[in-house]
Design a protein that fits this description.
- By secondary structure, the protein is of the alpha/beta class.
- Helix content is about 20%, strand content about 35%.
- It has three domains: about 140 residues, Galactose-binding domain-like (Jelly Rolls), CATH 2.60.120; about 100 residues, Immunoglobulin-like (Sandwich); about 290 residues, TIM Barrel (Alpha-Beta Barrel), CATH 3.20.20.80.
- Strands 1, 2, 3, 4, 6, 7, 8 and 10 form an eight-stranded antiparallel beta sheet that branches. An eight-stranded parallel barrel has the order 21-22-23-24-25-26-27-28, surrounded by six helices. A four-stranded antiparallel beta sheet has the order 14-13-16-17, with no helix packed on it.
- The protein starts with 11 loop residues before the first strand and ends with a helix.
- Alpha-D-galactopyranuronic acid (ADA) binds next to loops.
């Protein structure tokens, strides 16, 4: 299951065995084929702990007719093959993609997915970085039987108009056949429903817009995260042939002056940055561990999480929808400066990550803000243009959420005017000494002059490192748990006490592995600024943060 609820009552899924055969294709790999669990990062196998190369996953499936293969995430590039024929290639580990095969004879077929986590010259986003780029099929794969016409996607956004709720939706239908087809498409949510008839040309994809008024609904709030199913059904000659179910929540987000309002009430954010990673499972985080992360964050008094620095597994977003955890989701780009942004593939790859994030995650009510381009080259005209293009792309797809980017503390940013919310990453007390908000105030002064005056401000990162179990009774040594506590205490108080700041995301929830090239400044080859370590063992800072977040929660 690639989601936490049933997404089809009509379309049939072809069962896959969770154990696939993996053959590594490059140096440093395995001696022969091995059985592996999918989804999983190949680094879970101790022999492949640092393998950079290609891995070919295969299994035999029984099917016929038209099938749709959905791969939720493959690190980092993928090729999907059926009976040795390439169906689809994909770049990007953090969004899903489909591959279609038509007119198959009934019987056994060999499904293969080749994953490749090597760094390559034609890759602009996938570079050695301050997190580990895992390999393998890291998110669930599903195979479904489809007809000649099927529902490719469903976008449904609740919008409040005066006192009434309206769902603005779009159902995308694809015709794989050689003939034009007339189809009826219905959309329903609660008591609201509508049906339309459309002609879809051969080989075409058609978007069918819907606008439906809803009766009485319960609002989605962090305290009472009410969710409603929304179902699209495709009829051919009056017969239901295909369907797609998602969930929505009725809530509004808007920026008013320097505040972000959720359902018209101002937000004060107490959150965490979280890399999607768990100890030896790497980026293929088991859903039980996702839930545990959310339980810990709730225990810590957090109300929000940032999916740094890429779109997350939809099952994590499903859990956030269900538990009322607010999410800042961002497309994949971390720390790329002008020269790297001038890579000929940069914009194409970033656009793709952003487009797929929006298409696949737009319905999640937990997402209250979109981000992109964490700490990239916002200080040159060229870089600023890249930011502007991505922001306008996001706004075009979704006018219902604000847009932001986590900026460096350095001066010279040219995009304050293009953000709905000014977000800044700062590390006072860790990378430099001085008053917590000294650098921030200089930054905000610049933002004020540069088009950011009066906008909400989020501290998108702040934190300090500690190695789990390393203690300095005098509390002085960097990397000691005591020193981390002392720094965090100062940072959290200084930020949360300011009424002009919407809140913060601590860097970071859990320690995460980093690429080899970063290891020199990262003891244990990990970014050790977690409140818990990579196995979720709480550091001393856990209690410190819990007390402070708990205190600010009641203010
Ligand atoms: C940055 C960056 C993070 C991480 C962090 C740190 O601001 O956005 O990915 O590298 O700093 O630990 O220094």
């Amino acid at each position: 299951m690639d989601r936490l609820f049933t997404t089809h009552l009509i379309r049939r899924e072809i069962p896959l065995h969770p154990v696939w055969t993996l053959r590594t294709l490059d140096e440093g790999g395995l001696d022969g084929p091995e059985d592996v669990w999918v989804s999983g990062a190949w680094e879970s196998d101790p022999r492949l702990r640092s393998y950079r190369g290609r891995g070919e996953y295969s299994q035999t499936i029984r099917c016929g007719g038209n099938i749709r293969i959905w791969a939720g995430g493959v690190g980092f590039r993928a090729g999907v093959y059926l009976d040795g024929r390439l169906l689809r290639e994909h770049y990007g580990a953090y969004t899903g993609f489909e591959a279609i095969a038509c007119g198959l004879p009934e019987g056994e077929h060999c499904l293969q997915i080749i994953a490749d986590n090597r760094f390559a010259e034609d890759s602009a986003l996938h570079i050695p970085n301050d997190y580990y780029a895992y390999g393998g099929i890291t998110r669930p794969v599903t195979v479904e039987r489809i007809g000649d016409v099927y529902i490719a996607s469903l976008c449904a956004l609740p919008v409040r108009n005066g006192g009434r709720w309206i769902i603005q939706a779009c159902v995308t239908v694809r015709n794989l056949s050689a003939e034009p087809v007339s189809a009826d498409v219905s959309l329903s949510a609660g008591e609201a429903g509508e049906q339309q008839t459309v002609m879809i040309s051969s080989g075409e994809t058609t978007e069918i817009p819907f606008e439906m008024a809803c009766g009485n609904v319960r609002e989605w709030t962090p305290e009472d995260p009410a969710l409603y199913p929304v179902q699209a059904i495709l009829f051919l000659n009056g017969e239901p042939m295909d369907d797609l179910i998602d969930r929505i929540g009725f809530r509004t987000v808007r920026v008013e002056g320097n505040r972000i309002l959720l359902n018209d009430r101002p937000l004060k954010l107490r959150g965490f940055n979280r890399h999607e990673e768990y100890g030896s499972f790497g980026s293929a985080v088991p859903p039980e561990a996702m839930m545990q992360d959310l339980q810990m964050m709730r225990d810590l008094g957090a109300n929000c999480v940032r999916t740094c620095h890429y779109p997350n597994d939809p099952r994590f977003l499903d859990l956030c929808d269900e538990t009322g955890m607010l999410v800042w989701e961002e497309s994949h780009a971390r720390g790329l400066q002008e020269e790297q942004m001038k890579h000929p593939k940069f914009m194409e790859q970033l656009r793709m990550s952003t487009r797929e994030m929006l298409e696949q995650h737009i319905n999640h009510p937990c997402i209250f803000i979109w981000g992109s381009l964490n700490e990239c080259g916002d200080n040159t005209e060229f870089g600023a243009e890249c930011y502007r293009e991505i922001f306008s792309m996001i706004r075009q797809a979704d006018g219902s959420r604000p847009v932001t980017a986590a900026l460096l503390e350095r001066p010279g940013c040219l995009v304050y005017g293009d953000l709905d919310v000014v977000s800044v990453n700062i590390y006072p007390g860790w990378y430099y000494n001085g008053p917590v908000t000294g650098g921030l105030d200089r930054k905000l002064e610049e933002a004020g002059k540069g088009g950011g005056a009066g906008k909400p401000v989020i501290i998108s990162e702040i934190g300090a490192g500690a190695i789990y179990g390393f203690h300095d009774p005098f509390g002085q040594a960097k990397w000691s748990e005591e020193r981390q506590c002392a720094i965090l205490k100062e940072q959290i108080r200084a930020i949360m006490n300011r009424p002009d700041i919407t809140g913060l995301f601590l860097w970071q929830f859990a320690d995460c592995r980093v690429d080899e090239e970063w290891a020199i400044h990262r003891p244990k080859t990990h970014n050790n600024k977690g409140i818990v370590d990579e196995y979720r063992r709480p550091k001393m800072a856990y209690e410190t943060v819990k007390q402070l977040f708990g205190w600010y929660k009641t203010r």
